[in-house]
Amino acid sequence: MDDPYAPARDALAGDGLAGGAADSDPALLAARLDEDDPLASFADRYRVPDGVLYMDGNSLGPASDAALASLDRVVDEWRDRLIAGWTDADPPWFEVGERLGDALAPLVGADPEEVVIGNSITVNIHTLVGTFLDELLAGNGPEREGFEAADGTWAPGGDPDTDPAVLVNELDFPSDHYAVRAQLRQRGIDPDEKLRVVESRDGRTIDPRDIEAALAAHDDVGLVFMPTALYRSGQLFDVARIAEAAHETGAYAGFDAAHTAGAVPHEFGDAGVDFAVWCTYKYLNAGPGSIGALFVAERHHGLTPALAGWWGHEKATQFEMKMAYTPADSAGAWQIGTPPLLAAAPLEGSVELLREAGIERLREKSLALTDFLIALVDDRLPDVSVGTPREHAARGGHVALEHPDAERLSAALSDRGVIVDFRPPNVVRVCPAAPYTSFADVLAVVDEIESILESGVHEEYAKNAGGVT
Ligand SMILES: Cc1ncc(COP(=O)(O)O)c(C=O)c1O
Predict the structure, then answer these.
(1) Name one Pfam family in it (predicted).
(2) Is 256 a catalytic residue?
């Protein structure tokens, strides 16, 4: 079949639900889509509890049989082999960072040595933003014209005329700003001056033209650090376009891919991305607090990481325990300390499963699921608006449903086994993740929202009862 998911797209275009076509009955349409779904059988390999409609995989992905098996294997190795596991386990723990980096690389369009697992997103932002600020301050940044610092006169010490700025946006995940500000501060650069923040026009999205305009307006931007998708509205960014605009003005381009890695295919290599960070506990389904991951383009290998540690040392000589630090000539250099094996082990199984499904097919199904969801919301929920862009090219893996009583709605949904999350002030994020969600599940979620809003049962919940779920 050419495109098994076409009926979902047609439904959003108005041909299926409201448009009066043969499949205007959503239950029939969902059944047909599920029957033709080439990924349908993958759901059996995830452990979503019976009676739960899990729509929160953009916060914490569920366990899979494969992830639990790779975790069990490492636990057994720890029990049976003790310290020898570092070298004698199969495969040895020592190379876990590089090995799982290799497994992740195809999902982000990178060469194996450009990806490694290690640390957490926030720590990886610290070390990578720090590294690239150091490069700018050493006069080694991308070629640029006009700004005085082009010839290497950027120097630490708080001279606003020559200090490099970092361009971010106001809808970023807060931790990213905390880390970038700290890295500026640590180089004597005033973040209030040099953290340049692109504003949103609508409170939901960032217009890419505003990123370009900020670059044109400020010739001091040395690093553009943007998300691949916004955590609240789910807007997907055009990574290649941003990287190109950054490079044209002599800035590096780094990305936080937390909300796309494992859900949206990337081409970091072809797009010219300098570095990227992401987590593995969302769409990569490796478990709560699982290890982070990062990409550093090959052309930057050999730089000295801002946060250096022995695990980023050249592997062949790491155990010579020399005081002189020789960074690995790969993204592996940005590892810091001993990798948390038990927080990395599930990733092996969970990534295998995603690779078996195929990232391109997962993306196609994800778009179909969110097409179907948006079509149902348009058709059935007059008091709910969709805060996520409708164009596929600007839509990540979840849909932001906006309702004035979003917090109480999300609490009521949770009591009915529909796990979503609330993001202040008015957003319920619904994530029908492709590996384990059916079209019938999406319909059931909308049925629940409709019945809650029509009955008003959510009004029985105390305001601010649940907090952020
Ligand atoms: C977009 C984004 N960036 C950064 C973070 C922080 O990640 P960590 O707690 O792993 O450092 C999160 C956490 O959910 C996130 O969603």
Answers:
(1) KYNU_C
(2) yes
Q: Ligand 1: list residues with CB < 6 Å.
A: 120-122, 173, 175-176, 227, 231, 256, 258-259, 279, 292
Q: Is 429 a catalytic residue?
A: yes
Instruction: Among 2.60.120.200, 3.40.50.2300, 3.30.70.1150, 3.40.640.10, name the CATH number for the domain at 74-354.
Output: 3.40.640.10
Per CATH, the homologous superfamily of domain 6-36+358-460 is: Aspartate Aminotransferase, domain 1 (3.90.1150.10)
Q: How confident is the model at residue 65 (pLDDT cuts 50, 70, 90)?
A: very high
Band (pLDDT 50/70/90 cuts) for residue 146 is low
CA 121–ligand 1 middle distance (angstroms):
6
Active site residue 147: no
Q: Which of 281, 283, 422, 436 is catalytic?
A: 281
Q: Exposed/middle/buried for 200, CB within 10 Å: 0-12, 13-18, 19+?
A: middle
In this structure, the number of other CB atoms found within 10 A of the CB of residue 270 comes to: 12
Domain boundaries in the chain?
6-36+358-460, 74-354
Is pLDDT above 90 for 431?
A: yes
Active site residue 99: no
Write down the mean pLDDT value for the chain.
Answer: 94
Asked if residue 197 lies in contact with residue 142, where contact means CB atoms within 8 angstroms, the answer is: no
Asked if residues 133 and 307 have their Cβ atoms less than 8 Å apart, the reply is: no
Ligand 1 center to 175 CA (angstroms): 7
Q: How far is the CA of 58 from the centre of ligand 1 (A)?
A: 11
Question: Could you tell me which residues come within 8 angstroms of residue 119 by beta carbon, excluding any fewer than 6 positions away?
Answer: 127, 291, 292, 294, 334, 335, 336
Ligand 1 closest atom vs CA 258: 1
| Cα–Cα nearest to 297, from 111, 166, 120 | 111
